[in-house]
Amino acid sequence: MSSVKNNLSVVKGSSVPDVSQFIFGIVWAEWNTEITVAMRDGAIKTLKAHGVTDDNIIVRSVPGSFELTLGAQWMAEATEVDAVICIGCVIQGETKHFDFICSAVANGITELNIEFSMPFIFGVLTTNDQQQAIDRAGGKHGNKGDEAAITAIKMLALEQSFE
Ligand code: RBF
Fold first, then answer.
1. Best CATH choice for the domain 24-161 from the list 3.60.15.10, 3.50.50.60, 3.40.50.960, 3.40.50.720
2. d(C-alpha 49, C-alpha 45), whole Å
3. pLDDT tens-digit profile of 114-143?
4. CB of 119 within 8 A of CB of 150?
5. Which of 49, 65, 83, 115 has CB 3.0 to 4.6 Å from 29, enough for a Cys bridge?
C-alpha cells in the first residue's frame, strides 16, 4: 500500500460506484498522530466525495497500531458497519517492535476479513522514516488514507457484484 508505484488516490479505469447506502467505520491509531490524522481525514474526505454522509461514517481511535485489530473487531460487533478502514503508521525504530507490530496488525486484520466476511482495510503505513510517512499522508506520493477509502468502496462494489 505504501508503494511509490501504486498511488490509488487517483482512481483510474472503471469508475467508482455510488456506495452512499453503506456504513463505513474508521479506526485510527494515535501513534504518529501527525500522519494518521492526515490519513484519517483523507479517508473521510474521499468517502464523502463518493456520496457517503457523515451519519454513515463511524470514527474511533485506538492508542497504537497494535490495538487496531481489537478496535476494529469491537466496532464490527457493536455497529452496522459494512467495511472498516484501519489506519496506522509504524515507523522503523531501533527495536524489534516494528516487526512485531507490523506482522501482528497485518495478521490481525487479515483474520478479521475472514472472520466477518467483510472488508477490513489495511491502511497502515510501514515506513523506514518519518519523511516517507509524510510523503504518503498527503505529500508527494498522495494520501494512503484516500487510497484505503477507495479500496473499501471497491471491495463493497465487488461484494455487491456477487449478489
Ligand atoms: N504504534 C504505532 O502505531 N506506530 C509505531 O511506530 C509504534 N512504535 C512503537 C514502538 C515501541 C518501542 C512501543 C513499545 C510501542 C510502539 N507503538 C507504535 C505502540 C503499539 O502499537 C501499541 O500501542 C503498544 O505496544 C501497546 O500495546
1. 3.40.50.960
2. 6
3. 999 999 999 999 999 999 999 999 999 999
4. no
5. 65
Cell numbers standing for residue 7:
498511488
- Calculate ∠ Cα 139-143-149, nearest 5°: 175
Three-state DSSP at 15 gives coil
Residue 58 pairs with which residues in a beta bridge?
25
Residue 97 is a catalytic residue = yes
Whether pTM exceeds 0.85 = yes
Joined grid coordinates for residue 20: 452512499
User: What SS3 class is residue 60?
Assistant: strand
User: Which residue from 67, 69, 90 has its CB within 8 A of the most atoms of ligand 1, so it is best to mutate?
Assistant: 90
CA pair distance 114, 98, nearest whole angstrom:
25
- pLDDT, tens only, 67-125: 999 999 999 999 999 999 999 999 998 678 899 999 999 999 999 999 999 999 999 99
Centre of ligand 1 from the C-alpha of residue 13, in Å: 37
